[in-house]
Amino acid sequence: TKLNISGVTPPIISLEGTFGGYAVNDIFIIGNFAYLATTDNNKEVVIVNISSYPYQEVGYFNASGTDDANNVYVQGSVGYVATARKVQSFDLTSNIGSRNKYGEITLANTPVFFRTDYVSQIVVRGNYIYAALENDWYEFAIGNVSNPSNMTFVSQRSVNNLQTSDIYVSQDGNRTYFGTNYGGGENQFFVINTENKSNPSIISSYNTQGMSITA
Asked: Is 71 exposed, middle or buried (0-12, 13-18, 19+ CB in 10 A)?
């Protein structure tokens, strides 16, 4: 769903248009294109032109394997999609038609339960990808994506015994912010120093007093 918002007090919201046909877990927008992370086994990422209505599907990426797409991110001419324990990169030099795969990297690799860990959220800044992890002994991981065809694992960080569903990374990649679900006696919100990608460290943390953090 695309909404137009004008004004401040009060804001005026109007519906511009909708696009349907897929179950969608995440959406990423750049300019005139929307990238949808879907549950379709043949089109884990659907590319939609939203420059005019009706919106048109113009391209897609068929990721390896049968897992749903949890999250999608685009930087420059490269797309990234989180599927289960991996992130796959794909060619976006064009948005039209079937897009080719560049490579893949496993970022959730220490499951709490047998093969139930997965990448829940990804952010790309420069040459690095930052991932939130669910059902993993670690809550956070970093990978090097300077070569999308040969991405490499850099580091992982545990902050508590809980799970992470979302992260935010500063534009320079030096600070990462994320929260976890609630657990008694443990803090849930964290600010991480990620200047040293190989050894991220906690700057500060906060206890939400009973509330889980979802975003």
From this structure: buried
The whole-angstrom separation of Cα 83 and Cα 38 is 10
Our CA angle for 174, 176, 178, nearest 5°, is 175
Query: In this predicted model, what pLDDT tens digit does every residue of 31-63 receive, in sequence order?
Result: 999 999 999 999 999 999 999 999 999 999 999
CA distance 151 to 137: 22
R_g over Cα of the chain: 18
Q: Is the pTM for the entire model greater than 0.70? A: yes
d(CA 140, CA 137): 9
Helix (H) or strand (E) holding 128: strand 128-134
Query: For residues 81 and 63, is the Cβ–Cβ distance under 8 A?
Result: yes
For 124-128, the CB contacts below 8 A with 24+ separation are 124/73, 124/75, 124/80, 125/169, 125/170, 125/171, 125/172, 125/173, 126/173, 128/154, 128/173, 128/197
Query: DSSP letters along 15-38, please?
Result: EEE---SS-EEEEEEETTEEEEEE
